What does this fold into?
Amino acid sequence: MEAPAISFVAYVRRTPLLLFLLVYTLVTGGPFLWVATMSLRTTPEIFAAPYAFPSRFHWEKFAEAWTKSNYGTYFWNSMIVVVTAVLLLTVIGAMGAHCLARYRFRGSRLVRFVILSGMILPPQLMILSLFQILRDFGLYNTLTGLIVVYVAGHLAMTMYILEGFFAQIPQDLFDAARMDGYSDFEIFWRITLPIGVPALFTTVTLNFIILWNEFLYAVVLLTDDDKRTLPLGVMHFMGSHQLDVGMLATGLMITIAPIILLYACFSETMIKGMTAGAVR
Amino acid sequence: MTLRARLLKPFGRRQASEVDARRVAPGTLILFLAPALLVYAGFTLYPVLRTFYNSVHTMRPHGVVEYVGLANFSALVGVDPVFWKAVGNTAIFTIVATIADVLGGLLLALCLFSRPPFAKLLRVVWFTPVLMSYVVVGIVWVWIYDYDWGLANLVLRSIGLGAFEQSWLGDPRTALWSVMATHIWKWLGFNMIIFLAALSALPGEVLGAAELDNCGWLAKLVYIVIPMLRPTIVNLLVLSFVGKMMIFDLIWIMTGGGPLWSTETVSTYVYKRAFDWNTFDLGYPSAIAVLWFIIILAFVMLMTRLLRQRDKLEF
It folds into this structure.
């Protein structure tokens, strides 16, 4: 049923609403556009007129940030940590979720309860002793340690989302596969994973965004400058002696660029991913 | 191979168990589950248990660990004014920001639900802050709140309210509220998306019937939409509540708990006691973390109980 054409009166009545929509759009999107303009301007220019459009685009600032201000190192550290952790999470989580969703075995309810209860554990409850534990294992202040902690911390949510999806795959499919002589591994590899691609996509985006932005674990578990991830690098820059606002804005832009790029291409997937854990 | 298996299987002796795809050999099961269980046990369960263990101990320099019973807890509750200040701040933050988040998210969702022009684009733009890290959001808002060149004061001056300009994060009276505003700004889009999904799932007939009955939009909202969205509202309240009780990143980045403990929250205090005070005692902060976890858990159970039970009575 098509809505009738909106009359002039209705338009006038909706003006406050439309005005509000415009203002709120500026409020949410504006700050990022502002950072984008600042990232292309030098600090003296910014202090002369903080909200002006760049008179000249200083693209060289990105090269300078990348090499001189160490953002290149931070960026690759972030990439290594996040990509490895997301890969591990996907593989380990999918294997575990497959077991919980597919097989009947003794203790399955206990395993499910124990792992999924990890979703309600606040990070503060683990961070203090993780600091000790990683030191004991010689993993403190290493990217490996951070990766392992990230995998452990996000396993519960990953398995929760994947199991919910895997459990909906019709059992007939698996019975038929078993009849055809598929091994358990083949069933996982050739049925669960291909059919589960949408759910895997969701957890990959969710984990990628959360880990790319993660701050608390990183700030506690990493200390060396050459091991810092992007959020730590930016934060370190913020706290340094003479704050170079222009260069910091460039750093912020480097931090948000991958997310913005992904968001521009896959906005629906990313919105779905970020909200996946909340819709029950 | 496949064909042979298919031909031979029905004649095999252990036919039933082999064909039942819900059964699995223990070895395979272990192979599939072991990585998850190991990582989880080593880096989630063990740390939690160790934090509980630490909370009843005091760690002195040179690795001396001393059992102190509940002394940490009694010191915390009895004689630690900073802890109570942090609890107060966290409580204000949690209550106000949770309500603002859920109500604001609902209003934004209703705006988009009324099918304004460019609804799809607006939805994407409004969600952007959710995707940004606290570090980015925090730094940008520190600039926005800057006394000299920040946007907040600039806007006030330009509309003739220059009298209200202040050092938003530097004044103990406004710091907590300023950080809160930023936090709400970041998360509104999240709540909006969830509400939008719930609104689209509402049965259209009910709203149509209400329209026929000449029901005003406010009455429609209060008597029809909100009751029908109740499960979503409860979920978001709990989710938002838990997140805010643990708030750390944004506060740490924007104010570091200052000025004068005016934005100190329980989580920032835990961090300070553990890593900033150079006392090397992880016992005391662990006690804070344990106590706080128990309180959060109790509140979540209470909230779900209170809010969900009404559901049962209604039907």
